[in-house]
Amino acid sequence: MSQLNSVWVFSDNPERYAELFGGAQQWGQQVYAIVQNTDQAQAVMPYGPKCIYVLEQNDALQRTENYAESIAALLKDKHPAMCCWPRRKRGKALAARLSVQLNAALVNDATAVDIIDGHICAEHRMYGGLAFAQEKINSPLAIITLAPGVQEPCTSDTSHQCPTETVPYVAPRHEILCRERRAKAASSGGPEQSKTCGWRRSWSGGAG
């Protein structure tokens, strides 16, 4: 399998970085990481990135999707071949925004990724999981959200050091903020009713 010049990884769940690096190191000659704070930067450094980019936080209440403009501005100057996100609700929403802003092909829920003759080929489920399709991506940039368990986590090297850079926050036209979280009262009814316990979230904002 041939390799791309560079692969970038980002996750709104820090626990998924090891798996993302496990794939990115196979697909790219150089791997770059985008993280949300300095603690995450230190956590992913042992995975061997070439450089770590720390997103500048504007508001503790903001959602992951609000970083789309900031990441797009960064990637326009770096010209990566592929970006890998984990398959999560917030990550998929961010990937969709970036796909539009960067005019990049997007494959969600990829179950396999190969580099064949310099082209990215991603496999994903279709027809409710009854079949698989392989997409050959021809755009200069591919954004892929990976299904869990697609790649083995990479090994870590605590001696690895790399530079870190701060990515300025670029505000979207409409920010999405989590204004409030309230615990729902547990129901004293049957099993079906008891399953409704969880969190209620109040949102403001709209699509960028």
Automatic annotation (TrEMBL):
Keywords: Electron transport, Transport. GO terms for molecular function: electron transfer activity; flavin adenine dinucleotide binding. Residues 5-180 form the Electron transfer flavoprotein alpha/beta-subunit N-terminal domain. Gene3D superfamilies: HUPs. GO terms for biological process: fatty acid beta-oxidation using acyl-CoA dehydrogenase. InterPro entries: ETF_a/b_N, ETF_a/FixB, Rossmann-like_a/b/a_fold. Residues 184-208 are annotated as: Disordered. SMART domains: ETF. Belongs to the ETF alpha-subunit/FixB family. This is Putative electron transfer flavoprotein subunit alpha. It comes from Escherichia coli.
